[in-house]
Amino acid sequence: VIQGTILLWEQWSGNSHWLSEYEGGYGFINNFTTARAYQYSGIPIANQSQTEGIKLPTFYLPVGQGFYVEVVNDGNIEFNNGQRVFVKEADADDTDPENGSTFLRSAEAIGDSENTEDVFQLIRIEFSTSNGASRRFVLGFGENTTDAFDYGMDGGLITTPPSDDMGSLLNDGQYVIQAFSPITEDKEIDLVFHSSGSHNYSIGAVDIKNIPEGQKIYLKDNFNGYYHDLRNDSAYEFTSEAGTFDNRFQVVFREGSTLSNNDDQLLNALVFVNNQEEKLFVKGLDQKVKNLLLTNTIGQVIKHFKDIENNTLINGISTSDLSSGLYLVNIETENNHSLVKKVIIE
What we know:
By secondary structure, the chain is mainly beta.
């Protein structure tokens, strides 16, 4: 009768009754796991020290918590006392949605968690933009789920995505939660990516559960052939022109021939600004730099240097004509390896 996913509206700011001025978003709950709402850039939240901002739903809805479901067929929807259970809101934590209940109206933030009741293997991925927006989506793997649509296990269909967004791809639709058959070496999971072309982007795994340590998990960028190890603590950073891309990124489970910048010797490169000397330094490279771009947080290229010798980078590049603020240093070497680092110019 219903589509299989519960939607919870979280109003984290504002008091307007005009729909276009609502400051909030939908979190998701289904039989597999839960997922928080899309985090928009610049949304004021109650606890400013909590950068992730919004709440992750638990599996228990408090008394008085409103929710939405999509009705897809005729039939009866039943509520009964057997669906009630005594759970305290105060017991909600950041490790297990079975603990406590979460009332999604106030803006007190808690961390992410996931449902492991059925011992699902889980990868929770975060897509972020340089202006602060982010989306977390979940890939799960189990013996009783398939790579096709599984009722109650695949959910969070995004019909009108933000201009910068990402999720898994199923039947040409973008999903926030998707379950699959067990992991195999040749399994490939397609992702859909929306870009405004105005920002820098990053993708990383924020949680991996019940998957053996020896199982390889990579993000594959088909644009340049890079494979980024999702077990790596660093995120994969990249730029893009505007558009929707359903064939650029995949999650795969075997290593390719070209590891990304975050998996090779570029991780050891030291990129920093000496604000007293007003210089940008890059040290520790063993390759010539083909392109070095300085971009601001909205993706605008402020400076572009070509074919730079290592000695020039070691001795420093002047930053005296740059305004104070946060910048991204985008480095591309002669071997087509790339690296993105953040620096602050004062």
